[in-house]
From TrEMBL:
Pfam families: Pkinase. It comes from Oryza punctata (Red rice). The keyword ATP-binding applies. It catalyses: [DNA-directed RNA polymerase] + ATP = phospho-[DNA-directed RNA polymerase] + ADP + H(+). It comes from the Eukaryota. The lineage of its organism: Eukaryota, Viridiplantae, Streptophyta, Embryophyta, Tracheophyta. The keyword Thylakoid does not apply. This is [RNA-polymerase]-subunit kinase.
């Protein structure tokens, strides 16, 4: 791999992976005036994602903006992250399980940039919410649906890892569902990192999906934190609720160890070397793995449990990689051919209600003036 470089030195100076991609029919640098906003797709503290239509081609896209903050020297904080995410996405613009990146667009008056991405569909989180609302006491997703989802996600994650990129924020909210439920795609590489960066690495990700080694302060974690997050997603699809979401990182660790067993030198030899080793009082009753009790064989087959158990292994040295998981028997029988119709992801019959745009322009943003947003 060669000498590692610091995060501050990486990413945005790479010219061989220039911001581009898409369908190759339009310049990768455009004006937001080239687009007409049709609806909001999401908004929050980070900024906003809107659905828009390219005026010349009629193509639907998603435009991602970040809330603008000013740092030292008046520079918009987040612009480096925006360019870094654009570079990362451009590397995978043709992978079927990673959202396609079409380029960058700039607001002509404010100078605000946004990412231009393919419009896929609702998030897996939204679909999961709709399925949970159906009631009946049944798991929100069947085993076949979960297998189909996980195969596609593993394919995308494997490609990221082959190119030394760690997503660091895999969760249902960062997975998009499209093609009537037949396709899932990873999105939002805003927290992604290159393993060529020099450690120590910061904690990153969302509550309930962070790997135990990250929570325990391991400064040089690797791509296997993504595999842990995939295990959390898989378990949530089968159970209908997040497995480890607590009110603090300490509570998350307690929930992990309560279900999977408290680590020790035998199960995790490097555990005593972690910064937070000894800081957590571990209960003696957490002496064994109870994951199979939560997912009995009538809910998850033996082959399926081999995958889930391999993902949710506290010791990262014993955890499955994405490539190893795809070679396991659970994925050996295809569900993408004649049985695809029966295995489609459980999308709600009617699309979730979307908030209409206040105007077919960029005059109104959930984070205020477009000048207050920076894409990323």
């Amino acid at each position: 791999m060669g000498e590692k470089r610091s995060a501050a030195d990486s990413g945005i100076t790479d010219t061989d992976e220039h911001a581009g991609g898409g369908d190759g029919k339009r310049s990768c640098f455009e004006s937001t005036d080239d687009y007409e906003v049709t609806c909001w797709l999401g908004k929050g503290a980070f900024g906003a994602v809107v659905r828009a239509r390219h005026r010349a081609t009629g193509k639907d896209v998603a435009l991602k903006f970040l809330r603008r903050r000013r740092g030292m020297g008046g520079k918009a904080v987040g612009e480096d992250g925006l360019l870094r995410e654009a570079i990362f996405l451009a590397r995978f613009s043709h992978h079927p399980s990673i959202v396609q990146y079409h380029g960058l667009a700039c607001h002509p008056s404010s100078g605000t940039w946004c990412l231009v991405l393919e419009h896929v569909g609702p998030s897996l989180s939204r679909v999961l919410q709709e399925r949970r609302g159906g009631g009946g006491g049944e798991p929100p997703f069947t085993q076949e649906e979960v297998r189909r989802i996980m195969r596609q996600l593993l394919s995308g994650v494997q490609r990221l890892h082959e190119r030394h990129i760690v997503h660091r924020d895999i969760k249902p909210g960062n997975i998009l569902v499209g093609d009537g439920g037949g396709v899932v795609k990873l999105c939002d590489l805003g927290l992604a990192m290159d393993t060529a960066w020099k450690p120590p690495y910061q904690k990153a990700g969302s509550p309930g999906y962070k790997a135990p080694e990250m929570l325990l302060g391991k400064p040089d974690y690797d791509e296997l934190v993504d595999v842990w997050s995939l295990g959390c997603v898989m378990g949530e699809l089968l159970a209908g609720v997040p497995l480890f979401r607590g009110h603090s990182e300490t509570d998350e660790l307690f929930r992990i160890f309560r279900l999977l067993g408290a680590p020790c030198r035998q199960t995790w030899p490097s555990y005593p070397s972690l910064p937070l080793f000894g800081a957590l009082p571990l209960c003696r009753s957490w002496d064994r793995n109870r994951l199979r009790e939560l997912f009995p064989e009538e809910r998850l087959s033996r082959d399926g449990f081999e995958v889930l158990n391999g993902f949710l292994t506290c010791n990262p040295d014993a955890r499955l990689s994405a490539a190893e998981a795809l070679r396991l028997p659970w994925f050996s029988a295809t569900v993408d051919g004649a049985a695809a119709a029966d295995a489609k992801i459980g999308q709600p019959a009617s699309s979730p209600r979307q908030e209409p745009a206040a105007a077919a322009s960029f005059a109104a943003f959930p984070c205020g003036d477009p000048g207050d947003c920076v894409a990323g």
